[in-house]
Fold this protein.
Amino acid sequence: MAKFRQKSKGGVPAISTASLPDIVFMLLFFFMVSTTIRETSLKVKVVPPYATEIKKLEKKSLVSYIYIGKPQNAKMYGTAPRIQLNDAFANTSQIREFISSEREKMNEADRNKMSVSLKADGDTDMGIITDVKQELRRASALKLNYSTRSGTRQAIFQNLR
Amino acid sequence: MAKRGLPEVAAAPMADVAFQLLIFFIVSTTLDTDSGIFRKLPPMPETQEQVEQEDIKERNIFVVLVNRENKLLVENEPMDIRNLRAAAKEFIQNPNNLSTLPERIPTEIPYLGVMPVTKYHIISLQNDRGTSYETYIAVQNELTAAYNELRNELATQRFNMKYEDMKDNDPRKEAIDQVYPLKISEAEPRDIGGAS
């Protein structure tokens, strides 16, 4: 016995890695709780414009998203801006249907708190966006959020050129 | 040889497994919180006849036109977007009580007393179909900023507190909102500036 003890005194003791899994699991749980799984894969390119006067969207379950931008696969779908609802391209006439199906998914009590977030690319013309807004009004989804990136006032004006 | 005990489970590969899971979750999820400018759209009029505007006095309306070249026409004069915020602030507040800007009506407001409020003012934002979304948002942002700056000034002056630091259900915040109510009308679409 004495022999063994003498030997182990010589070298530096190895760092125990037994607690490493615990640390990694902790990180894992943090990420699982604090993030949301991407629900839709984007088929359009969306680079939102900058703004300074922004508010955070609060209840994510009450928000429906409409994406507008140029198709990512330009060879297949061309370069004209398109609307994306859920996972597919859509045209303006489908918005009303989309809104009512989103409403169906919500609790009865939450339905009037529903809001729509418009994630549109900065380069889009207002024509398509006005059409979408008119459709939203017809569907009486009146709470609208223009999704933006936060930036300084300088960045906004520089981008306009 | 003595009896062997149960062999210990190797803990080292557990870290590898956990790392793999961790990386999978980092890649497949998003952390970004969506943020933006909030607006309430007006409800769709039931019939065509209702579209016609009610009478709004000329002095109470602030017309911002954005054409397809992304140029601004504010109250019939071309304006650089950098000056829009100041112009909008002056319109909303009418600090010098000019007869060309909205009338100030003394109103009793809780926590603040009697305040001159430009109750009937309206900012009418009209755009062309060819206006870029970027410009539109920049204009919306400047107009919102005008309101926020005015509210902030009042909050600092009266409550020694920033407007954005106030809680949403703070009655003082509601009082300030009453002095400077957000009135931006995104007008019915129409073509201006000759876009086809």
Q: What stands out?
A: Chain A has six helices and ten strands.
